[in-house]
């Protein structure tokens, strides 16, 4: 009996699974998996020894009483047992049971235990290959490196006969036949294989030119799907026609690089040599996705191979590419432009493989290699949103990465963590890693701590398919499976093309300085095109003549395009737009006029929005008691025709929704607002996850309002929102930082895309950045949104005295690279948001939003300031006693933002209302020369002072000073009042903060402090 109990314990992890006995219609005892619909991992299955005993004794009595699989098992485990049992039939029935049991116990052999142990060993062996087979796969085309940076061979992989001992198996077991578990497909239609054949098939599936990482995925169905795609014998087959197509695509990819190398040998082009297979790989991904219904593919990639992708994937005219190499080419568009291997492209064409219409967009990207990742995701999300493609079946994204950047750049991780968030998911992205096995000059062993550059993808359970890039058919198969995975599961997937870089980092670089052994091998490496062509010629699929004709055909195309490119003397960068907005810049075929209509709205609309903002438009919805008080306060303001900051924002958004403008607000905790002022999403206090967004209940046919808390990411989320804003001009897309200086970690997106995007790529973008700013004594990290950085990057000329034409305000906005404002009233905030959409063009808008002003009793606006006919005030002049007698005013204090209210309070206390005027600059950049000039001339006897709460080397002073001097013709000074220069944006000591505040307010109203000082 002890033998059988031991057998039962061992069977707990056996492929035969949990044993159950049917009591219906005397069905034979079966393994659970024989008639259960559940898919079970055999290593997680359990059993009970009594079942095994009952099964065994039932079989001894009558072999037909158990399932045939168990009959076969017990026959092999206990040969002759049934023969011994036959004579029992002649024994008295009363003694039958005891005799069977005694004989059964006597014959419960060591053979049965050995057989079970061997089956378990084989299952462990299969699992080892599935988990760790990629570590010994032949992935490096050069044959000199290990793709996982480790030459160690896992001890549980049977790479030599002596390793059979790890499982308790021996060479003599190789011919034994073992039943295969349900968690493998290596048998095809066979349920049993010899050990030798099992090992051979596992090696073919997991240890050749494809290395699979997927067993960390916590979904059995997904794991089984991948196993079937790669384990099924003979599944990786291509027709002769498919092989010829692959060869032709390799010809195009390779000969394009060869042509550039011949014509421009001394030019940087960041060619694809060493990974030419990437072009047919991308085309396979696109073709396969198109077959499955995808209509729009958005790509992002670094500079390596970009020209080849433009030429052979996006189908950019070759002459347009070649003319980029002409140093005498004149730019026809305003702006700086960019190097050719940073440019993007948008193209609509018919996909030859499917005869379906297909749109391709390659997003422009700077040398900050992975910065484009979230931008592509945001643009993809927007295209899905506007097409109603909630499952991502029509629009998808492909991201191409370099191995060193994929492992080293944090934005990759941030982007992956957006992949499954409801308001950010794009329903699966295909990531293609061009794994050069080297950075610029840095060995991968010095560039990452993980075995593979792709390990970051494991955090979202994305399967990772490593493949030797010198095996084109393996690459094509992997790409086909990747496209199917994305279409089936709508989740990310990674294709790791393990390749090499034939030249240095660029064509002018000498790689032998730092990687001599690698490049000695590379110099001897036969190009993949020749390898594959020789193979197909040997197989008789193509002839040498056909191959040479294909090369000559493509070379002729390149030569003709080169000739035509010489006729192009002007570069029109608009041909390289990756996000065109058809019809936006024209009105009925004519260019839009440089005007902006008034941004005010009817009073009844203001009241309606205020009433909805004060209500809960869902029945039986219980809100928090504190929120009830907030809504009641909103209702009171609406009745009194007054708004605070939050209500003004509500009215700006709501009015745009009525006009069909989609509004999307994203960022950390934006639904409630960092300072608990917004409350755009209401939460039922009794029902989990039941929410209400009153903004979506304003009008019966309104545009949708999207407000979404983001992950704790700035770089990734700001890039995402930038991409979202890129897709359509008819949307107000806003990103709010939790505190203004949190944009520090998104500086790359600001510098590379927002500040300079139009100059480099003629790409308008209307994204709005809301940056809480103000010195409130909260310490150096929660005070300053760093306005000096944005102003330093503004492109208006401080020394150029403008011509004030009738449309000066709008043309000045059109000529700037972005708009920087610091509104001091809710009404002005309302107007600037609406102006952002009503302008005939799109510019990024930077808004320094308040903190204490959100609830400041003086920081309120009346409906009168927001009604029809009203507009955004770039400058708010003095409206008190000083403005009535400007000749008597001794000092004009110019300021912006929150400090205005502190100045007004201090002026009142000192009773200087008639002697000191206070003027607010609401729009700081582009600088409102015309309105500031009016103020300066109005108070011609007064001294000019700029007062700010920020330190002198920060804030606005360095920006406004030269512009004031231009207006004053350097005849009069503009004095500075504020905090002294400092290294940190603010003090962390509350008392010091108050002392500093008191000191500069005293100076601001000391009418003698500048006497005797030289300018």
Automatic annotation (TrEMBL):
GO biological process terms, semicolon-separated: glycolytic process; tricarboxylic acid cycle
What UniProt keywords are attached to this protein's entry?
Answer: Calcium, Glycolysis, Isopeptide bond, Magnesium, Metal-binding, Mitochondrion, Nucleus, Oxidoreductase, Thiamine pyrophosphate, Transit peptide, Ubl conjugation
Record field: transmembrane: none
Recorded hits in InterPro entries, A to Z, give: 2-oxogl_dehyd_N, 2oxoglutarate_DH_E1, DH_E1, KGD_C_sf, ODO-1/KGD_C, THDP-binding, Transketolase-like_Pyr-bd
Named cofactor requirement(s): thiamine diphosphate; Mg(2+)
Q: What is this protein called?
A: 2-oxoglutarate dehydrogenase complex component E1
SUPFAM superfamilies attached to this UniProt entry: Thiamin diphosphate-binding fold (THDP-binding) (SSF52518)
Q: Which GO terms describe its molecular function?
A: metal ion binding; oxoglutarate dehydrogenase (succinyl-transferring) activity; thiamine pyrophosphate binding
Q: Which family does it belong to?
A: Belongs to the alpha-ketoglutarate dehydrogenase family.
Task: State the organism named in the record.
Answer: Pyxicephalus adspersus
UniProt EC number = 1.2.4.2
The catalytic activity, as recorded, is: N(6)-[(R)-lipoyl]-L-lysyl-[protein] + 2-oxoglutarate + H(+) = N(6)-[(R)-S(8)-succinyldihydrolipoyl]-L-lysyl-[protein] + CO2
Q: Which GO cellular component terms are attached?
A: mitochondrion; nucleus; oxoglutarate dehydrogenase complex
| Superkingdom to which the source organism belongs | Eukaryota
Residues in Transketolase-like pyrimidine-binding domain copies? 643-856
Keyword Cell wall biogenesis/degradation set for record: no
Task: Indicate where this protein resides in the cell.
Answer: Mitochondrion; Nucleus
């Amino acid at each position: 009996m002890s033998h059988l109990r031991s057998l039962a314990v061992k069977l707990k992890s056996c492929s035969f699974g949990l044993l159950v006995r049917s009591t219906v219609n005397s069905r034979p005892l079966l393994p659970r998996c024989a008639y259960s619909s559940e898919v079970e991992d055999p290593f997680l299955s359990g059993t009970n020894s009594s079942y095994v005993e009952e099964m065994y004794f039932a079989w001894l009595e009558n072999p037909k009483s158990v399932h045939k699989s168990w009959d076969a098992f017990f026959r092999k485990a206990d040969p002759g047992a049934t023969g011994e049992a036959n004579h029992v039939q002649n024994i008295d029935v009363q003694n039958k049971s005891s005799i069977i049991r005694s004989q059964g116990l006597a014959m419960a052999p060591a053979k049965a235990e050995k057989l079970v142990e061997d089956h378990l060993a084989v299952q462990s062996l299969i699992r080892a290959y599935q988990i760790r087979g990629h570590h010994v796969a032949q992935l490096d085309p050069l044959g000199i490196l290990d793709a996982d940076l480790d030459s160690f061979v896992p001890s549980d992989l049977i790479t030599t006969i002596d390793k059979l001992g790890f499982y308790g198996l021996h060479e003599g077991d190789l011919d034994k036949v073992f039943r295969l578990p349900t968690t493998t497909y290596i048998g095809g239609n066979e349920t049993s294989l010899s050990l030798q054949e099992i090992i051979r098939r596992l090696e073919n599936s997991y240890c050749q030119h494809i290395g699979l990482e997927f067993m960390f995925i916590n979904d059995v169905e997904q794991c089984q799907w991948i196993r079937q795609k790669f384990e099924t014998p003979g599944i990786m087959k291509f027709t002769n026609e498919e092989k010829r197509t692959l060869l032709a695509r390799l010809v195009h990819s390779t000969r394009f690089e060869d042509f550039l190398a011949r014509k421009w040998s001394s030019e940087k082009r960041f060619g694809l040599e060493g990974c030419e297979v990437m072009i047919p790989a991308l085309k396979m991904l696109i073709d396969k996705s198109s077959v499955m219904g995808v209509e729009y593919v958005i790509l992002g990639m670094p500079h390596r191979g970009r020209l080849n992708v433009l030429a052979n994937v996006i189908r950019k005219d070759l002459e347009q590419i070649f003319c980029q190499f002409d140093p005498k080419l004149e730019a026809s568009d305003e702006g700086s432009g960019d190097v050719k291997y940073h440019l993007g492209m948008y193209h609509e064409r018919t996909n030859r493989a499917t005869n379906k219409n297909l749109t391709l967009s390659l997003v422009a990207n700077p040398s900050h290699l992975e910065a484009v990742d979230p931008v592509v995701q945001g643009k993809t999300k927007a295209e899905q949103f506007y097409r109603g493609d909630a499952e991502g079946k029509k629009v998808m994204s492909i991201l191409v990465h370099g191995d060193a950047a994929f492992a080293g750049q944090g934005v990759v991780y941030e982007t992956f963590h957006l992949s499954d968030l409801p308001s950010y998911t794009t329903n699966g992205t295909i990531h293609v890693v061009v794994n050069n096995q080297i950075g610029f000059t840095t060995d991968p062993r010095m560039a990452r701590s993980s075995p593979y550059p792709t390990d970051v993808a494991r955090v979202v359970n994305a399967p990772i398919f490593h493949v030797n890039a010198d095996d084109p058919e393996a690459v094509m198969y992997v790409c086909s499976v990747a496209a199917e995975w994305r279409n089936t599961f709508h989740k990310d997937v990674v294709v790791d093309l393990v390749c090499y870089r034939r030249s240095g980092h660029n064509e002018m670089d000498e790689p032998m300085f730092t990687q001599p052994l690698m490049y000695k091998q590379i110099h001897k490496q036969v190009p993949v095109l020749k390898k594959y062509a020789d193979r197909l010629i040997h197989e008789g699929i193509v002839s040498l003549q056909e191959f040479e004709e294909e090369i000559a055909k493509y070379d002729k195309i390149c030569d003709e395009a080169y000739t035509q490119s010489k006729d192009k003397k002007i570069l029109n960068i608009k041909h390289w737009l990756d996000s065109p907005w058809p019809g936006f810049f024209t009105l009925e075929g004519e260019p839009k006029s440089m005007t902006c209509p008034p941004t005010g709205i009817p009073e009844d609309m203001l009241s309606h929005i205020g009433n909805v903002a004060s209500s809960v438009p869902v029945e039986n919805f219980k809100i928090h008691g504190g929120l009830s008080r907030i809504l009641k306060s909103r209702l009171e303001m609406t009745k009194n025709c007054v708004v605070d900051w939050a209500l003004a924002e509500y009215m700006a958004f709501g009015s745009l929704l009525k006009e069909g403008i989609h509004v999307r607000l994203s960022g950390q905790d934006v639904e409630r607002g960092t300072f608990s002022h917004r409350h755009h999403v209401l939460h039922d206090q009794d029902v989990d996850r039941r929410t209400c967004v009153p903004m979506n209940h304003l009008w019966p046919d309104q545009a949708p309002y999207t407000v979404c808390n983001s992950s704790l990411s700035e770089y990734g989320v700001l890039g995402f929102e930038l991409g979202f804003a890129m897709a359509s001009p008819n949307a107000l897309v806003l990103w709010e930082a939790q505190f203004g200086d949190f944009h520090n970690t998104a500086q790359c997106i600001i510098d590379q895309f927002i500040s300079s995007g139009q100059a480099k790529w003629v790409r308008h973008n209307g994204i709005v950045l809301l940056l809480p700013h103000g010195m409130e004594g909260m310490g150096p990290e929660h005070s300053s949104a760093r306005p000096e950085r944005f102003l330093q990057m503004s492109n208006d000329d401080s020394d150029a005295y403008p011509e004030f034409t009738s449309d000066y305000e709008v043309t000045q906005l059109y000529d700037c690279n972005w708009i920087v404002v610091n509104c001091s009233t809710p009404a002005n905030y309302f107007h600037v948001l609406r102006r952002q959409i009503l302008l005939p063009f799109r510019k990024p808008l930077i808004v320094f939003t308040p903190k204490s002003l959100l609830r400041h009793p003086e920081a309120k606006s009346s409906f009168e300031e927001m009604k029809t006919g009203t507009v955004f005030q770039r400058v708010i002049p003095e409206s008190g006693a000083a403005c009535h007698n400007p000749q008597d005013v001794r000092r004009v204090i110019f300021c912006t933002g929150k400090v205005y209210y502190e100045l007004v309070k201090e002026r009142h206390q000192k009773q200087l209302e008639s002697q000191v005027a206070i003027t607010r600059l609401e729009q700081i950049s582009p600088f409102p020369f015309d309105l500031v000039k009016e103020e300066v001339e109005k108070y011609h006897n007064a001294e000019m002072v700029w007062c700010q709460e920020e330190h002198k080397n920060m804030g606005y002073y360095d920006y406004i000073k030269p512009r004031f001097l231009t207006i004053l013709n350097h005849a009069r000074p503009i004095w500075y009042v504020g905090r002294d220069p400092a290294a940190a944006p603010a003090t962390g000591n509350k008392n010091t903060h108050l002392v500093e505040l008191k000191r500069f307010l005293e100076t601001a109203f000391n009418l003698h402090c500048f006497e005797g000082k030289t300018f």
